[in-house]
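Case study 2.
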Amino acid sequence: MSRIRLSDARPYSELLLCRVEGGLGMERKLTEMGLLPGEKIKRVDAPGDGQVILIIKGAKVAIGKGMADRIIVQECVNRKTIKVALAGNPNSGKTSVFNNLTGARQHVGNYPGVTVEKKEGLACYGDYAINITDLPGTYSLTAYSLDEIVARNFIINESPDIIINIVDASNLERNLYLTTQLMEFGIPMVIAFNMSDMFESTGFLADDKMLSVLLGADIVYTVGNKNKGTKELLEAAVKAYESGQNRKIISVNYGNEIEEEASKIINLLDSFNRAAINYPKRWTALKLLEDDKYILGLIKNQPSGDEIIKQVEAARARIKGIFADEAESLFADKRYGFINGVLREAITRKRESNLRISDNIDQIVANRIFGIPIFLAVMWLMFKAIFRLSEAPMRWIESVQAAAGGLAAALLPVENLARDFIINGVISGVGSVLVFVPVIFLLFFFMSLLEDSGYMARIAFIVDKFMHKIGLHGRSFIPMLLGFGCNVPAIMATRVIESKKDRLTTILVNPFMSCGARLPVYTLLIGAFFSNEVSGNVLFSLYLLGFLTAVIMAKVFRKFIFTGESAPFVMELPPYRVPTLKGLLIHMWERGWLYIKKAGTVIMLGCLIVWTLSVFPLSSKSDLTKSFIGMTGKAIEPIVRPLGFDWKIGTALVSGVVAKEIVVGTLGVLYGVGENSGTDIHSLKEALKKDSYPDGRPVFTPLIAYALMVFVLLYIPCLSTAAVIKKETGSWGWTAFSISYSTALAWMAAFIIYQGGRLFGL
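Prediction:
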């Protein structure tokens, strides 16, 4: 069935929404109206009246014809909807497959009651509309972490028709562990052998039919980053749906003793209140024997839960008495035993190969001696490259800004408030932030390169031993490294950490990682007060200082607040891959675009507020210190004076609480570079270098500039970061603690640098 525009749909026809054209703003607006991909709607108007009347969720809604032109639909003639859960391990290529399946027909939200991101999309195949929900990447469904609980609760509570299980074919043994647990739900499943090209290149050959029989699911070969196997995957999903529950359900046999104990619990669950706990009985019994705290908690809260708990405790004691081991270890052994049996039966090796390329590379970059020096060298090279490669595009943007400032001055020759607003408020403030777009894009490009190549996971592995010494482990390092891009998603990435103590510690130290928002401040001050030869070194030192501060504070927190052993941790190392240029550019654009949007909204608003405070009251025009912002800055000055900062710097730091980029925008407004000497960042650098106190002392020196950068690095997280800390910790107390201790730490660090530098005559 072909897709058409809503405006062209027949009146009184039932329709299925496929996608929305016109950008995120349009999509968000329709989402708020209840128009999601896969949603059934009905057009009930007669054509030609300039509006389209729809029935959405039982309510009548009128939309303009222009909007209807951007909505792509299919007619729902004999159409069936299939609900699909997309599951898989992290790094299995699940996101690539999801994007291939759904294209632009995606919707992002949160799972009810939690902040874990939920991606939904629609795929149309034949007469079927396939609604796909991308579950959080998990290694198991034993529910240690929030992601694992969300994934399994979705499967149980939402009752998907099909599970599409994405398996990294180059790492079958590890990835099939999740498969054995998904099998226990009894839901029809399709297994996508993703990265099948790597699987075959290493000399392996799979017997598809045998695998399908042993795992009870069709096998489809896919290569996510090359969009291979997508059509076959949809075809298999439809086939699995049509086969339904008639398909043979395969489950791991845990041995007579365990199966017998499970049966006793299942019998008790037969009389249980199924409305309260709607999980499959066998699955629930096995989870109780595995000592799953989440399921145990649910059972305990039920009226007849005590009887079941007693039976579970007796069963676990009997199993331990027989096998001299805990039940959860026996379950894992049985599952891996099942996996090994499957692999022996269905996988052969065409040729004996030497160590794979990834293994050879790991012998060097993950070496226990050379690993950390290589990592530091990679990071140093990255920052050097960012500075070098961004020089030319920054000059181009400066030229555009200068032209914009000149054009504005020519069009508005009469000096008045409106002219001042446009040149000094908008162009100077926002323009001084936009000039750093090349720097930000390059940072995200290199971060994507590290992630997509598989080196990011090696970094966590390399530092794992070191992280254990401060009471954390390698998994905590991944969110910290992601903080180099932005602290907000980095803090959200801590959800994969099972231990609450480890997670809170990681959240509280994450803001010390230099995010992209601080980069404009660094670039401005390093460019103004340090030579080209040392610029990369100075930048690298700031990133290193942020990391060391995070490490030290983590050690302090683990010793005095979150005491106890860190949770055990196993780090999976995905094979090295050659990232596609398309993938790198997409990731760079997605993250960089957020920066540009921020410059046009939050940063612009912040700069305009600063400008307004700098020109009122109007009587203060000849003396900035008598303006509202001047009076505010003067009030702050005694606090920042011991750090070597004057009132303008203090004011810029206060505005940076909203977003760190506004520090630069505020300096641009306060120094009036748009009015006096053009609108480019070079003019702002020159203004900073020339600024002096009445006694002739310079306001800025290299020492003061470095102390200022350190203060920006460490002080209060931006508002977005503070908000996500509140969300992820669920506590205003921890949020207030994060804000206050980091600001105090920043003041002390800047004080030591400035006063210590003066002692040495710097």
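The CA atoms of residues 520 and 570 lie 37 Å apart.
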